[in-house]
């Protein structure tokens, strides 16, 4: 492995030096759109919206935006993707071999998103670009001599009677790894295929001493639980006692900051945290700059992006898109401004609203940060609380108590008097007494609109505290443990009442 590590590092260094200068972002994105339209012009979607005619236009982007509407998942699935499950050439040439079940936090049931061969190749291409960026981090050769542990959802895909396989996107990716990945990929396809989350993690913990892990990738909540289970099983002080070469953690799926302290607590030495934006809809961005969590956008890998301002120019008071929102290109965005992300891709997604809100951190190169979900915008009574504002208040609350709070849930619900309150459920070991008053004060300091709402329609705030085990038990009730599952930070009233009922029975 030492010789292989030297070769890998040398290959990354050479690749980084040989890479040509990237195109101007505007030109690059227009070229991506042209390629996508060209490939899909003879599909049912392409014919319906006149892709051939759009390709003849001198104003390609403007013509595309004029002819093709913006779709959310419900519209895209009902009108097009449901047909692509049965027929060829609907939104992309051919018929997908896979559909990804998105286990995200929105909607009552999983989404089913087509995964084409071109789309799989695109995600591998972005992954290769991320690996090439490691040249700038100047990691030691020991990293490249070690193995990478990817904590995915189950790679045991379900075969559908319509001729395709389905599972979560991380499981689909793992199932498509070539055999030579076995040289460095852990836990291996056999363990990755175990369908039960707890059994899979127990198998990982059992095998852990046999591995030389240098990097780990996965959603922080589940990676943290896995590492804690390994430490407990082998009676370790920290994870570096068993994996001394563990140097890199590639986070993704949710914001990392609420987990930072707990990761520090289980490590014997500092590790590099790299953020990734890898969703069922694509591998959209990744950390490419040392000392930063900002993510470089994948502008040349089969995606065309559009951006809708996350303010009165693009959304209404409930966080939903306006009928005619302002839509901007990569050359029109501003640093510090939040945008709803719109995506067209080689999976056959067209002007598709993923549901994420991003903020540009820089423009040269274009680097972003995910600030929340459109559905994580709590504004029932004008409080206008974004996920970022809530995260900030929770972090400050945890710091004040010298504790950690990884997950939380909140909803606007009506009390017995018919008045709206904010009901919070916090996953922590803190005592409940006084937390509501403290959190309320922090939120008012962070957001003036929330302060106004508290003086009017938002009558109170209540906080309940549950343990990590109670939280995972709640997720287990609905088969939401592990894999790509993300914390549902903002809940509907009905879902919150279900959680409160569960808590009352503990």
Automatic annotation (TrEMBL):
| GO cellular component, as recorded | cytoplasm
Which Pfam family is an annotated match for this chain, by its short name? GH3_C
Positions the record marks as coiled coil are: none
InterPro entries in UniProt: GH3, GH3_C, GH3_M
The residue ranges of the GH3 middle domain are 299-373
Gene Ontology MF, one = acid-amino acid ligase activity
Where the record annotates domain GH3 C-terminal, the positions are 390-494
Q: Which PANTHER family match?
A: GH3 DOMAIN-CONTAINING PROTEIN
Q: Protein name, please?
A: GH3 auxin-responsive promoter family protein
Organism equals Algoriphagus machipongonensis
């Amino acid at each position: 492995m030492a010789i292989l590590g030297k070769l890998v590092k040398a290959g990354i260094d050479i690749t980084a030096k040989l890479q040509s200068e990237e195109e101007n972002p505007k030109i690059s994105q227009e070229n991506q759109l042209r390629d996508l339209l060209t490939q899909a012009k003879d599909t049912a979607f392409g014919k319906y919206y006149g892709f051939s005619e759009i390709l003849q236009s001198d104003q390609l982007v403007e013509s595309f935006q004029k002819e093709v509407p913006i779709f959310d998942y419900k519209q895209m699935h009902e009108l097009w993707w449901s047909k692509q499950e049965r027929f060829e050439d609907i939104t992309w040439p051919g018929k997908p071999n896979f559909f990804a079940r998105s286990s995200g936090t929105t909607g009552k049931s999983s989404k089913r998103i087509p995964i084409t061969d071109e789309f799989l190749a695109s995600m591998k291409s972005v992954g290769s670009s991320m690996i090439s960026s490691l040249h700038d981090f100047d990691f030691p050769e020991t990293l490249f001599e070690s193995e990478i542990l990817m904590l995915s959802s189950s790679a045991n895909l379900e075969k559908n009677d319509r001729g395709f396989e389905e599972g979560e996107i991380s499981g689909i990716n793992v199932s498509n790894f070539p055999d030579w990945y076995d040289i460095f990929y852990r836990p291996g396809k056999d363990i990755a295929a175990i369908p039960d989350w707890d059994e899979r993690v127990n198998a990982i913990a059992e095998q852990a001493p046999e591995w030389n892990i240098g990097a780990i990738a996965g959603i922080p909540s589940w990676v943290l639980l896995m590492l804690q289970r390994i430490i407990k099983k082998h009676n370790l002080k920290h994870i570096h006692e068993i994996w001394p070469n563990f140097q890199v953690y590639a986070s993704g799926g949710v914001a990392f900051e609420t987990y930072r302290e707990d990761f520090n607590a289980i490590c014997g030495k500092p590790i590099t945290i790299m953020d990734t934006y890898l969703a069922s809809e694509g591998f959209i961005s990744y950390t490419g700059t040392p000392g930063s969590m900002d993510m470089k956008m994948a502008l040349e890998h089969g995606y065309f992006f559009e951006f809708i301002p996350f303010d009165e120019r693009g959304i209404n008071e409930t966080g939903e898109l306006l009928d005619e929102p302002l839509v901007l290109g990569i050359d029109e965005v501003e640093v510090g401004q939040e945008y709803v992300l719109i995506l067209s891709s080689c999976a056959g997604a067209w002007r598709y609203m993923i549901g994420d809100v991003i903020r540009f951190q820089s423009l040269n190169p274009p680097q972003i940060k995910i600030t929340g979900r459109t559905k994580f915008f709590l504004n029932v009574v004008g409080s206008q609380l974004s996920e970022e504002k809530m995260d900030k208040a929770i972090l400050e609350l945890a710091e004040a108590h010298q504790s950690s709070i990884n997950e939380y849930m909140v909803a606007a619900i009506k009390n017995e008097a018919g008045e709206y309150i904010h009901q919070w459920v916090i996953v922590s070991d803190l005592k409940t007494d006084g937390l509501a008053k403290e959190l309320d004060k922090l939120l008012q300091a962070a957001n003036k609109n929330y302060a106004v709402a508290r003086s009017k329609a938002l009558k109170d705030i209540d906080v309940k505290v549950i343990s990590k085990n109670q939280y995972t038990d709640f997720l287990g009730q609905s088969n939401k443990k592990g894999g790509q599952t993300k914390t549902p930070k903002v809940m509907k009233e009905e879902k919150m009442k279900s959680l409160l009922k569960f808590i009352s029975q503990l």
